[in-house]
Amino acid sequence: MDIKSxxxxxxxxxxxxxxxxxxxxxxxxxxxxxxxxLKAGGKRIRPVxxxxxxxxxxxxxxxxxxxIAVASEFIHTYSLIHDDLPAMDDDDLRRGxxxxxxxxxxxIAILAGDGLQSYAFELISKNNRLPSDKLxxxxxxxxxxxxxxxxxxxxxxxxxxxxxxxxxDIHFIHTHKTAKFIQSCCQIxxxxxxxxxEEEKALKNYxxxxxxxxxxxxxxxxxxxxxxxLGKKTKKDREKNKLTYPAVYGLENSxxxxxxxxxxxxNEIKILRSxxxxxxxxQYIINREV
Amino acid sequence: MDIKSxxxxxxxxxxxxxxxxxxxxxxxxxxxxxxxxLKAGGKRIRPVxxxxxxxxxxxxxxxxxxxIAVASEFIHTYSLIHDDLPAMDDDDLRRGxxxxxxxxxxxIAILAGDGLQSYAFELISKNNRLPSDKLxxxxxxxxxxxxxxxxxxxxxxxxxxxxxxxxxDIHFIHTHKTAKFIQSCCQIxxxxxxxxxEEEKALKNYxxxxxxxxxxxxxxxxxxxxxxxLGKKTKKDREKNKLTYPAVYGLENSxxxxxxxxxxxxNEIKILRSxxxxxxxxQYIINREV
Lengths: 290, 290
Known about the structure:
In chain A, helix 3 (45-56) crosses helix 9 (166-192). Chain A is mainly alpha-helical. The first copy, chain A, has 15 helices and two strands. Chain A has a single domain (3-287), classed as Orthogonal Bundle (Farnesyl Diphosphate Synthase), CATH 1.10.600.10. Helices cover 72% and strands 1% of the residues of chain A. In chain A, a hairpin with a 2-residue loop joins strand 1 and strand 2 (97-98). The two termini of chain A are 19 Å apart. At the A-B interface, helix 2, helix 4, helix 6, helix 7 and helix 8 of A face helix 2, helix 4, helix 6, helix 7 and helix 8 of B.
């Protein structure tokens, strides 16, 4: 099976567990809004990276860490709902469908995002199959990678950026907005698999590098991608005067830089027991069309 | 010392620990926005309840649980920032000062709220003085009490309420929007103090009852409170057609119901080793003017 088909199959597996773990309750509209955004599809790359990182250091039974993987997608989904808000990126479409606030209104979209964040931590903290110290470290990595020193900080920098200082800014934004969360996912997989310090460090570095490559490829796809395949308008970043790699370094240099990050990532994980899938994921990240 | 002065002193203690724990970093504006809202004052009743609940079941050294207490205030502050947003309650003033989005803009206010939530969990999960199993339960209680089955659910219900079904709705809203978070704080104090199951249950029930009394008193103060003392406009709830106890049951009945909840709360904790302060807090809740 080629990596594209493999990732599709893994995404379907994640989707079935998301379905299992979607919370229900009152008020219905809040829960509907969360379910709507959770079911909107996507590559599920963060949960897949948690599972594949764990496998790469020898974990065979990933069933027991499935809830943790899903929790990472709950956090990712919350961030998408909030990013799409009128006060933020003001997007009407996400994966070819109306964004959460277009369907449920702004107030419920804000609360659905807030609720998905807290529910991710609720889901991890109520897990009774994994030891407390591992769960606590998972919570730390997730909160740190997606919070003020990670994703939230990067998103704020993205909104506030000053064009003048582009080279530093673009690296800060991409590292924080995207790479740190992906890094946390790879490290979470390592922790859950009981990896050695050396293995954990390799996966941590791998995560950072593929995270950067991933965001550069996102920028490139926004420039030259296929709107139909992507399920959203392209050239939005340019319209919004966003700081992107193609805008700062040009398209060809950006491709080269993404390639270099992938090589660095692959280099890091050669010491692992079974790095094959992760190597292919790294390469796929810059070859993908969606 | 009377309870009002005691609570003021405790709030000052909490404030000094908030100062110690306010995060700093880049982008500055995001961190400024969080600090601005954290420093805006307030009763700090949630952290105080964590500390006092722990003391009531015999915990003497509350220094080591101070970071957990502060984390609860980070969550409370995030909820205030988001509640004040134009798409939500649309408030310009909070505790006599311009609200976060009025000073920093909506996008940064949304992110400051998101970031305060994740940083609360980061703060708890990186604690290295308390055992992992206790920290994990604290995270569960906090996430559960403030998430979709607690505060976020209640806030959504408040926004979506249908006037027709007032009696059920008002109880649902107050229980979820306010009481469940306060309940979690009392239970967190119990867990951190190593309370017995019976003691934990007593504090859990106490928390629910004083939480309801607290919200009813908030509704009453919105009707008849002193704008200057409160640092905000009164009669806002009525203007916004909000479901409140005075609106549904009338002012006198509301006062009576708050009194009844306080009596129930006091009754629950009589079995504790040192319930005196918690009893006085319960009574203060319905006598307070701010």
